[in-house]
Amino acid sequence: MPNETFYIGQSSGCKKAFTAEETLYYCRHLSGDNNPLHYDAEYAAKTRFKKCIVPGIMVSSLFGGILGSVLPGNGTIQLGQTCRFINPVFIDEEVEAVITITNIRQDKPVITFLTRVIKRDGTIAIEGEAVVLVATN
Amino acid sequence: MPNETFYIGQSSGCKKAFTAEETLYYCRHLSGDNNPLHYDAEYAAKTRFKKCIVPGIMVSSLFGGILGSVLPGNGTIQLGQTCRFINPVFIDEEVEAVITITNIRQDKPVITFLTRVIKRDGTIAIEGEAVVLVATN
User: Fold this and answer.
1) Contacts of B78 in chain A (CB under 8 A)
2) Contact between chains at B65 and A22 (C-beta distance less than 8 A)
3) CATH number at residue A25
């Protein structure tokens, strides 16, 4: 039962910098996104961002990694995810994804997390919520 | 101005089947997810899903591809995304991602989309909303 092993405020995180190669793979093979803002430095230089930015949902992949591997861990089924993309994450910029338990249902093994991606200067890049079903077998 | 070129109900979509190789790349290089449900067929066979499932946020990458490449197109900045993962998407299962305009702000170039991933039998795999800032330059 999740309310026996997890608690409100329990937290986990990971750090990662997404490379140009990873971003290109994501755009070409997964999302099919040919927005040059993600991989064309010359194009990006003319935008208000100045540099290539990693797609927001690609950065949000980190939440699933923590949820499925660490907290709650293997067998976790994600039911939902919300994301507000507040500040851009640039290629090769190390960010930290942090998930924190905000609610544990008593009637079923469902946990809600605050999910955030934080930049080195402390500003929030992405903020939202994940709802997961915890493996009970 | 977005309200001159876009309209409520305007829609675009794409079809894709995510391969085992793409899923493994996503888990190993992007999300860091070592949940065996995504790539270990023997493990998956013992779960209620029976087969390996593509991570929900990985499937949701398709929305960004359409938004950034087709509608509204290049230069689009995504401000937010919500996803409810209603039914699993399996490896090699072709699904269709469809985005439909539900709101166009009059005061700024911000558009809201209903975002759905639909399975071949018509059931919804993922449903949510995307909010984007349209390129105005």
Assistant:
1) 55-57, 85
2) no
3) 3.10.129.10
Chain A residues inside the 8 Å CB shell of B35: 68-69, 74-76
**CA pair distance A27, B60, nearest whole angstrom:** 13
Task: Name the domain count of chain A.
Answer: 1
Question: pTM of this prediction?
Answer: 0.94
The parent domain of residue B53 ranges over: 2-133
- Contact residues, chain B, for A83 at CB < 8 Å: 80-82
d(CA A63, CA B121): 29
Chain A, residues 23-42, CB within 8 A of chain B, namely 25-27, 29-38
**Contact assignment for B57 to A35 by CB distance below 8 Å:** no
In a structure prediction context, what are the per-residue pLDDT tens digits for chain A, which is 137 residues long?
Answer: 444 689 999 999 999 999 999 999 999 999 999 888 899 999 999 988 999 999 999 999 999 999 999 999 988 999 999 999 999 999 999 999 999 999 999 999 999 999 999 999 999 999 999 999 997 75
Angle A94-A95-A99 from CA coordinates, rounded to 5°: 150
